[in-house]
Design a protein that fits this description.
heterodimer, A: 172 residues, alpha/beta, Rossmann fold, two-stranded antiparallel sheet, 25% strand, B: 681 residues, mainly beta, Maltoporin, Chain A, 22-stranded antiparallel β-barrel, five-stranded mixed beta sheet, 7 helices, globular
């Protein structure tokens, strides 16, 4: 029996490799956007917040761009991304969504402030950013999808999600 | 104004504040989008709020649209039969019964079946006609099976479980799916569903289906009508939905018909013709604090029993008309970030009319209030508790068939029942979860068991009338279970121990009734053979399940051990009542399912082992007997080739191993092959 379970463990872990810690699960992030209320529609500009000169941040940004291609459907909306450097956060105004890349931890306070001013929903793979109420949505990097929503950050960004969505995620 | 109508108005007035205080509606749950987001199916069938399948506080199986599309099964019972804790008896080619955790019987009244929240369980006889669901496999988003009583959420008849069938919501683009198949034994099936956006958030959906297949060969040793009806089932339905902001409104209706031979609860084989239609409407509104829903529907059923000599060479027909009107309101309120409260109310009015009953109309009204609390006092601990009060008013009206075998006043009665569920879930580790849950639910006596009055066609010295009883009581079902689930990457393990106790199980008269007959002397001698509460029984056992995925291969294995205690009316000849779950429920069941999807090619297979059982049937000598059904290893398989993204060819077969006991029926199972084409646009 132990061997059987052991074999199952090996089989299970063999097929579910953990993604890199810092990499944002972009397909899930896009689906999260579709649960915003009111539901977004049309062309929806999405910022990718990057730290210039930070390799992890640039790699994460490139991965997000690759995943989204020329535009990804989020419900009735189509996301079109553009990089926004942490040195020019004022330009976040006008975006509804921003993907906060890895390697921007030092700038998360400023990102949160800019996002609140511009009512931008920030999505990240960095759980610390969500726990500190500096990002609205955190997407875990484990095999099992874990989504965390920070209520205070959401309120600050004037973001509202459908209640069905909120009952499936961890709200803090 | 009738008393029933006055009660309906009173209850409607009582429920109205719910809708006014909370001007929104139940969750407009987009199951497909939520599943895609969290990476696993989502259900609302356990506590009324959306939950991930891996987190529910009950033993739940969810069969997804992808699994349905690749399965060799061709109907809902065929899909359910490969899972733990489920007995599927395909009594005839068209008639199936699904029993959860034992209690195998024909016309199983213990399992509530819903399509998008609308009851498709038929009140007149307390059964589910799986060929009359009014839904095609092509339009199903997921099938949810909840094991154990769920009466606190769903009310009467969710006594041993619930099957909730959720249909797909149309997307933003027009889409259609058509399946055409043909096979041996006269099998032909054509089904299609189309979704069309009309602009402004308005969508229309149209579904239709047609099925024909020959009946299995009935052994000469069994009593059967002549001729035997082959299976025919037709269906058409339509729905229009509109989304405005966070709300959604749905209006729809449908028509279905079905003709087939069936085993009645008395175990007589009889040809039946059913026609059903429905209209339904619903409003849902998502709000910042939760959601509100208002739903209503009307189901109409025309059921003709004994279409062609149901009683062997004696022909007797019994038409019934059953109309069900239901209105529901529910409010789901988020107490805070983790805890929810759900409050609901429901009114149902079920009316049966026909000549083969005590009076022209037998009817009941049911008013219900329910509440469900879901609490998470700690991150790792979840507690849910639910209670529901159902108040039923029984009545009869119209001309009474003479001689009356009951005092008409006996029908003027009401009773109240309290159902409840409670569950505790503890996350024991990052991947392990223990759940302890239990509850009590009720199976309502059917309208037939309250008010049938059908003279036996068989000539006897004193006429015998099969009759219901207005004094019949709801059947109480207690249940408890202890389960553990563990996730190992993509592998999921689950073990459950369960116990279920059923009190006062209802049975229809069978054979050897002499000690139970009631004699009425005036105006002319008549003997009454009544539906009766024949005793208690208990089932207990364990379910072991494992499932996972390795690259393009998915697999699932399970084993169920079910022990049944209780003799009920006994099985010594002559058998007075055709109900003996201990004989009819197999003790051991095991399933192994494999699936492969390599892009162009896919294949799936299911191997099922079922231990031997004994099933009731009338012999050609018109004696009710228990017939042995041998243990069986049945193999089902399907393979498909996708010519393009839109076109797929497939072949499928059921019971390829030609195991006679695979159907769990006195009528041996045969092998059925089919091939077809599926077009998706």
């Amino acid at each position: 029996m132990r061997q059987l379970i052991g074999a199952a463990v090996v089989a299970g872990s063999a097929v579910a490799p953990l993604p890199l810690q810092a990499e944002l699960n972009v397909p899930i992030a896009v689906r999260v956007v579709s649960f915003l209320q009111p539901p977004p529609s049309g062309i929806m500009p999405a910022a990718i917040v990057v730290a210039p000169g930070n390799a992890a941040s640039l790699a994460d940004a490139a991965a997000i761009e690759r995943a989204l291609g020329g535009g990804a459907a989020a419900g009735k909306a189509t996301l079109r991304t553009k990089r926004v450097p942490v040195t020019a956060l004022d330009s976040l105004a006008g975006y509804r969504v921003a993907f906060v890349t890895a390697g921007t931890r030092d700038d998360q306070g400023a990102i949160a402030a800019a996002a609140a001013r511009g009512s931008v929903v920030t999505i990240t793979s960095d759980d610390a950013c969500v726990q500190a109420a500096r990002c609205v949505v955190g997407i875990g990097s484990g095999a099992r999808v874990q989504i965390t929503v920070n209520r205070a950050a959401a309120r600050a960004a004037n973001a509202r999600f459908g209640s069905a969505f909120l009952m499936l995620v961890k709200e803090i | 104004m009738t008393a029933l109508f006055r009660r309906a108005l009173a209850l409607g007035a009582a429920l109205a504040p719910l809708a006014i205080v909370s001007p929104a509606a139940a969750q407009a749950v987009d199951y497909s989008a939520l599943e895609a987001m969290v990476g696993e199916p989502v259900t609302t069938s356990v506590i009324g709020k959306p939950q991930r399948a891996s987190e529910v506080a009950a033993s739940v199986t969810i069969i997804t649209a992808d699994q349905i599309a690749r399965s060799p099964a061709r109907d809902v019972p065929g899909l359910l039969k490969g899972y733990a804790g489920v007995d599927v008896n395909r009594w005839t080619a068209g008639q199936s019964d699904v029993a959860v955790r034992g209690g195998v019987q024909t016309y199983n009244a213990r399992l509530l079946v819903l399509v998008d929240g609308r009851q498709v369980y038929l009140d007149h006889y307390g059964l589910t006609d799986w060929n009359l669901l009014g839904v095609q496999l092509e339009e199903i988003q997921q099938i949810e099976l909840v094991r154990g009583p769920a009466a606190a959420l769903f009310g009467f008849n969710a006594a041993s479980g619930v099957v909730n069938i959720i249909t797909k919501r149309g997307g933003d683009a027009a889409s259609a799916r058509v399946t055409a198949a043909a096979g041996d034994h006269g099998v032909t099936r054509l089904a299609g569903t189309a979704s069309l956006p009309l602009g402004g958030g308005v969508r229309a959906k149209l579904t239709a289906g047609r099925l024909r297949e020959d009946e299995r060969r009935v052994p000469a040793s069994l009593l059967a009508p002549t001729p035997i009806a082959d299976v025919s089932a037709d269906q058409v339905s339509g729905e229009v939905s509109a989304r405005v902001g966070s709300g959604e409104a749905v209006v729809g209706g449908g028509y279905a018909s079905n003709e087939q031979i069936e085993y009645l609860p008395s175990q007589l084989l009889s040809n039946q013709r059913y026609r059903s239609s429905n209209v339904h409407a619903g409003l849902t509104q998502d709000t910042a604090w939760g959601g509100v829903s208002l739903n209503g529907y009307v189901n109409w059923l025309n059921a003709d029993y004994g279409v062609e000599g149901s009683d062997g060479r004696y022909s007797v027909g019994a038409p019934f008309e059953n109309r069900l009107v239901a209105a529901k309101a529910a409010v789901l309120y988020r107490l805070d970030t983790a805890n929810t409260l759900r409050v609901g109310g429901e009114y149902r009015s079920s009316r049966m009319r026909g000549p083969a009953q005590f009076a022209e109309t037998i009817a009941y009204d049911v008013g219900s209030l329910d509440a469900m609390l879901d609490l998470h006092p700690l991150d790792r601990v979840g507690i849910s508790a639910a209670a529901r009060v159902d108040r039923l008013w029984l009545g009869q009206s119209g001309a009474i068939v003479q001689p009356a075998l009951d005092d008409p006043a006996a029908f003027d009665r009401a009773f109240t029942r309290l159902s409840f569920n409670a569950a505790l879930v503890v996350q024991t580790s990052a991947n392990g979860r223990v759940r302890l849950n239990g509850g009590r639910g009720y199976q309502l006596p059917s309208l037939v068991s309250f008010g049938l009055r059908l003279p036996l066609a068989v000539p006897t010295p004193v006429p015998i009338v099969v009759t219901g009883s207005p004094r019949m009581r709801p059947v109480a079902v207690w249940s408890g279970e202890l389960g553990y689930t563990h996730a190992l990457g993509a592998t999921r393990l689950e073990a459950t121990a369960f116990y279920t106790h059923t009190s006062d199980a209802i049975a229809s008269p069978g054979d050897g009734l002499e000690p139970n007959l009631e004699l009425f002397l005036t105006p002319a001698p008549v003997l009454a053979a009544r539906f009766a509460a024949v005793g208690d029984y208990a089932t207990y056992g364990t379910e072991w399940q494992a499932s996972g995925r390795v690259a393009a291969l998915d697999w699932r294995v399970n084993y169920t051990w079910t022990q049944t205690d209780g003799d009920l009316a006994g099985t010594a000849l002559p058998i007075p009542y055709a109900l003996s779950p201990r004989e009819t429920t197999p003790r051991h069941k095991a399933n192994v399912a494999l699936g492969y999807d390599g892009g162009r090619w896919y294949a799936s297979g299911l191997a099922r082992y079922t231990s031997a059982s004994r099933q009731f049937a009338f012999s050609a000598m018109q004696q009710l007997l228990l017939f042995r059904v041998d243990d069986a290893v049945a193999l089902d398989a399907r393979a498909g080739y996708r010519l393009s993204r839109a076109v797929e060819l497939f072949v499928a077969g059921e019971n390829l191993s030609l195991a006679k006991g695979a159907a769990g029926s006195p009528i041996p199972a045969d092998r059925r092959l089919r091939g077809g084409l599926r077009v998706t646009l």
